[in-house]
Specification:
- With 214 residues, the protein is an alpha+beta fold.
- It has one domain: Roll (Diaminopimelate Epimerase, Chain A, domain 1), CATH 3.10.310.10.
- It is 18% helix and 39% strand.
- The protein has helices at 33-43, 72-82, 123-127, 170-180; strands at residues 5-11, 19-24, 48-53, 58-62, 67-68, 86-88, 93-99, 102-108, 116-119, 138-145, 150-156, 184-188, 192-198, 203-212.
- Strands 1, 2, 3, 4, 5, 6, 7, 8, 9, 10, 11, 12, 13 and 14 form a 14-stranded mixed β-sheet that branches.
- It comes from Streptomyces seoulensis.
- This is PhzF family phenazine biosynthesis protein.
- Pfam families: PhzC-PhzF.
- InterPro entries: Phenazine_PhzF-like.
């Protein structure tokens, strides 16, 4: 079995929760896309990253079922692990920075995969949602405190690949921030925390805590 690290990305204030991420630091050991896809499916994380050049930050991202040009929580987690000024993804160059307990990336909304952003009237309605049948990728959200920019969210990939609910989803948070045009403090899933802030010229920062699980 190829060696890999397991991180939790977008952890809550106490260090709990967060979305697990697999990172294969020596991506050269599995250079083929089919082999990478097979390992991502076997590991079963919502995303697995293969690092092709740790010094330049060149990475390749897979879900259990497909390859992604960009994804939020894999970029935040890998930025923390590699401690590089940028990551190179098929979508483009992702700026990164570490700021105390938070790791930040800067990306563009058009890089994110399509998501249906579905607003609900209250956080309680979001909490009560059942996992929908496979179909569209839904990011369900509601204001907890609109004036303060606090959001309650849950994510349902709808891919039918065993990931019924995504614990923390940076790309969807990026899309929501771009749509609303304001900084957000998002509580997603069971208790993960994502921070976002719009930047000039169509860029958006997404940040969170990262913990090395094993």
């Amino acid at each position: 079995m190829t060696d890999y690290d397991v991180l939790r990305v977008f952890c809550g204030p106490s260090g709990g929760y967060g979305n697990e991420l697999g990172v294969v630091r020596e991506g050269s050991l599995l250079p083929g896309r089919d082999d990478r896809q097979a390992l991502a499916a076997k590991l079963g994380f919502s995303e697995t990253v293969f690092v092709d050049d740790p010094e330049r930050g060149v990475i390749d991202i897979y879900t259990p079922a497909s390859r992604l040009a960009f994804a939020g929580h894999p970029c935040v987690g890998t930025a923390w692990l590699l401690d590089v000024p940028e990551l190179v993804t098929p979508a483009g160059e992702v700026g990164t920075r570490l700021d105390g307990e938070f790791t930040w990336i800067e990306a563009r909304a058009e890089w994110a995969p399509p998501r249906t952003l579905r607003q609900y009237a209250s956080a309680a309605e979001v909490d009560a949602l059942q996992v929908p049948p496979p179909g569209e990728w839904i990011y369900a959200w509601a204001w907890e405190d609109e004036a303060a920019g606090r959001v309650r969210a849950r994510a349902f990939p709808g891919r039918g690949d065993g990931i019924d609910e995504d614990e923390a989803t940076g790309a969807a948070a990026l899309l929501l921030t771009d749509r609303l045009g304001r900084a957000l403090n998002i509580t997603q899933g069971r208790g993960s925390q994502l921070l976002t802030a719009p930047q000039p010229y169509g860029w958006v920062e997404v940040g969170g805590r990262v913990v090395l699980e094993r």
